[in-house]
Write a structure and sequence with these properties.
This protein is mainly alpha-helical. Helices cover 58% and strands 3% of the residues. It has one domain (2-137): EF-hand (Recoverin, domain 1), CATH 1.10.238. The two termini are 24 Å apart. InterPro entries: EF-hand-dom_pair, EF_Hand_1_Ca_BS, EF_hand_dom.
Amino acid sequence: MLAFWILVALVAFSAAQTPSGSRTIVEALKTSYNRVDTNGDGKLVPSEFQASLNVADKDHNGKVIFREYIGSSTTADRDLAEKIFNHFDFDNDGHLDDDDLKVAFAQLDVNRDGGVSLAEYLTEGTTLLAILLPSVASTVAPTAAG
C-alpha cells in the first residue's frame, strides 16, 4: 500500500536529518513510487495500492496491523513507524485496510484524474515528512519533483 512504501522511504532515511540527506529522501520517495507503480506507466492506481497492501498483510485477512507493518519495514525507528502508521489509519481502528487505502488515494490524487502522479506522491511524502520529521522536512521542498 502507498502508506507502506512512504513508510519505507521516510523511515529508511529518518537518520539523515541533515541538509546533505535531503536529496536522498526525495530519491527514496521516487524509489518507493516506482515499487508501487508495477506497470511502470507513471500513474499509481487503486489496484497497485491494493497489491502493496497484500504484500504487507502477512495473515491475509485484508488488514495490516502494526506488527505486520513494522515487520515489513527496514527500520529500527519504531516511534517514527508508529507515527506514520497512525497517520494512515484514518478511522483509528488499529489497522490499515481498504477504507484507509481509499482515503489515502483520494488525498493523493489531487487533480482527481484517477491516478497518482510522481509529483502528487512527492508532495504527499514531503508534507508527511514536514509533519513527522520537521528537522528533515525543512531541507526538502515539496516541489522537489524534478
